[in-house]
Write a structure and sequence with these properties.
By secondary structure, the protein is mostly helical. It is built from 5 helices and no strands.
Length: about 140
């Protein structure tokens, strides 16, 4: 029974090491993309890619790994979710969601869109009747 517990712990550390390998691969891809977008000379770009990758991924990974993970989370939308939660949702104040939706929103629901289309079609029909002599419709 003890060996199963030890095996589970070892398997957990294997998953963590696999995750770190994937994170290092993504870091290398990010470094390649950054250098190729900012350096036009191909030999210089290759030297910079190798040097920066070696320094970031192998020498100082304990420092840069956490920073890169935070950077990845921010760019994948975690920051957008935090801004929505802390700033956008708090702007309503004491008003109800219906009052907030009624404040000149472009489209608050599909029902609202359908009602706007009906009003637009009715206005077009009235306008078409005014243009025709005798108010005849098509």
């Amino acid at each position: 029974m003890l060996w199963l517990t030890l095996l589970n712990i070892l398997l957990f550390w294997e998953i963590i090491s696999d995750f770190m390998l994937v994170l290092k691969i993504f870091a290398i891809i990010t470094i390649i993309s950054f250098v190729l977008n900012h350096v036009e000379s191909k030999p210089l770009a290759a030297i910079l890619i190798v040097a920066i990758s070696w320094f970031v991924v192998f020498e100082w990974w304990q420092f840069f790994g956490g920073i890169y993970l935070l950077y990845t989370l921010i760019t994948l939308g975690i920051s957008g979710m935090l801004v929505d939660f802390f700033f956008i949702s708090g702007m309503a104040g004491d008003r109800t969601p219906q009052q907030v939706a009624d404040d000149n929103s472009p489209v608050s629901s599909s029902l609202d869109l359908a009602q706007r289309k009906e009003r637009l079609e009715a206005a077009r029909r009235i306008h078409a009747m005014k243009k025709r002599p005798g108010g005849m419709m098509r």
